[in-house]
Amino acid sequence: MAAILCRRLLVNDYAAAFESLADETKTAAKQQLLITIVHETEQPMRKKIADLTAELVRMQFDDEGNSEWPEFLQFLLECSDSNDVGLREVACHLFAVVPTVFGNQQANNLPLIGQFLGRAIADPMHYELRASGVRALAAFIVQNATENSVLQALKELAPMMLQ
């Protein structure tokens, strides 16, 4: 419940809820969110914490697309490569909620994005992971619908969505 209320607070008044905090407190809060996602064992709760984290991530980009929370991207990639299926699923969930997470580094990371999403969509053993991967790919395609380079880089994944 706390994750839901915190997310609501961030959505309604980010400046008062987070920007007014001391830098050390902001850093500690962000680190604790990532730790909590990793250690939470209940997937529905993990997703609620991920939703709160995604809301915070969304607010961490400047006008040029530079992230003020670069550790998050590393966390996302580590989760996407985890042996824990729940963490791989939450990585897809986070990417679906914040498809702009790569910011101004997106073009350089298209092959990595394709691998990340392709592994999730192609997983033969875990339906929820596949579904999360499809949602993430769809969100990313919608976000980049006018970017031909993105569409070309990911076109091989489209047929996998229907398998």
UniProtKB/TrEMBL annotation:
The keyword Protein transport applies. GO terms for biological process: protein import into nucleus. InterPro entries: ARM-like (IPR011989), ARM-type_fold (IPR016024), Importin_beta (IPR040122), TPR_IPO4/5 (IPR057672). It comes from the Eukaryota. It is found in: Cytoplasm; Nucleus. Keywords: Cytoplasm, Nucleus, Protein transport, Repeat, Transport. Transmembrane segments: none annotated. Residues 42-163 form the IPO4/5-like TPR repeats domain. Gene3D superfamilies: Leucine-rich Repeat Variant. One of its GO terms (cellular component) is cytoplasm. This is IPO4/5-like TPR repeats domain-containing protein.
